[in-house]
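Internal tracking record. Fields below are filled automatically when a chain is submitted to the structure queue. Please do not edit lines marked as system-generated. If the sequence contains nonstandard residues, flag them in the REMARKS field before resubmitting.
Queue: standard
Priority: normal
Entity type: single polypeptide chain
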Amino acid sequence: MSGETAAVSIDPSLMGPEESDPEGRAYRGVAMEGSIARWYARTRGTPSQIAAWRQQAKELVADLPAGTDLLEVAPGPGYFAVELARTGRARVTALEISRTFVQIANAHAREAGVPVAVRQGDASRMPFGAASFDRIVCQAAFKNFGRPQAAINEMHRVLRPGGVAIVEDMRRDAPDAGIHAEVRGMGLGPVRAYFTRRALFSLRRRAYTSEEFVRLAERSPFGSCAVRVEGIGLEVRFAKRPDP
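SYSTEM-GENERATED OUTPUT FOLLOWS
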């Protein structure tokens, strides 16, 4: 958790190109483009998952004033971004590196009839000015970033003073039984459930622990973070200090 800061080191294989990757790749693992992205969109777009995102969206914006500027980083197919916009409490922008996902998310927003500004770009080099957003959310994507430290630093830059960035992702110490339970709750058919389990077990290897998020926060302008463990995942909150 956020208070556990003693003698923690980050696995070098988890660091970005500023530490270990001279090619500066934006992705860790397989790029989500083309047929892979479309498969993922179909898998994540079940009615039960849409309902869960709808509830999460209501909870996330409950404390925000109407007209809040909200950024979702790496929205994938855009299901959560659309549900955030559907609440009517936030002006939603989404930043996605996959060109296929940008197309899918834009189409989904049009079909839903809600305004979501989906931009193509890299989380480690965001195409936004400083202090552009009141809140940032990043779900199930941080473990795939090629430059995790740069991504956190960019979140700080584009947040307004007093703003909060919320990262929700799988944790590297997630138990096998938890992954099986998570997939059962997705309401998938047997074939999709099998491949989704395989994908989650693979993704777990490059996910982060609570302690690693704490170290990333300490190395960033945020200076600290608050970590909450829930199920197979983590919620990490990075708060930008208000102006004096």
